[in-house]
Protein: Protein-S-isoprenylcysteine O-methyltransferase
Amino acid sequence: MLRILPYLGSKALLLLITALSVHISLSPPNPPVKKEDQNYFVQQLGIGSKTHTSLNPRNSPIIGIESPFEKVVLWVTFCSKLMVWAGVLLNIVAAAAVGCSGGNAPLAAAYLGSTCPVGSHLKLDGLPLESVGVHPALVVGTISTVVAAVLRVWCFKTLGPFFTFEITIRPKHHLITGGPYAWVRHPSYTGVYLTLFGASLALWSPETLNSTGCASQTPDWTASLGPIWHAWQRTFGMAFAGVWVAKCLFACHGMTTRMKKEDNALEATFRECWEDYAERVPWKLIPGIW
Structure:
């Protein structure tokens, strides 16, 4: 049994690092924008105004506070963190069951039955080696979320009090062009995309509870439990994946439109300074590409 512990420990550690990284990336560094700050922004920039003003030269809504994404952005990030923590903790509990029981517990047997690939013959302490190893997808996912967390924290530190999850221009706001913003105009969104990509890989790597595999390979002595467990697992996994995909698509669409609104708001506020900055840094997310 001791030989299996490093495999299970490595998997649990990577999952935990993934959850912590996602939590850091998606947690607001500053309190929500106060009502008076939003009122200032409305008065100065004419949010949603259809009339031409000196601060809204393109005669278009500058901010999306009234859009669906702006109304639920904090709930979307909270939902993302909650789902990642739930998925990670469930997998850690399952891995612990495997390590503690040696395959003699129903949960461990069902977990192994759902993760071992068809035709698996390699064994480690009587358990399928593939079920306790660390899949490359999990490693890549963890690295992606860690890089995203570092990038997001860099953005938090660079913008300081100006970094909020709501689009707003503070009374003493000034244009920040240093740090990661010297490379791309929206590095924090690069971090969000990396976070969602990495979390998706980690949660749905082949050796996790969320992935459905060879239910038919559940040990014979748990045959009576197998169909019930795997029916529940597939139902839960499909529902979990459906909510996650829908949330990610909604977030990606919201961030794409939000980048345009942020650019419009900054252009309307800082004018020539913004134009010089946009010319110097034309890339939004990836230097030299996009």
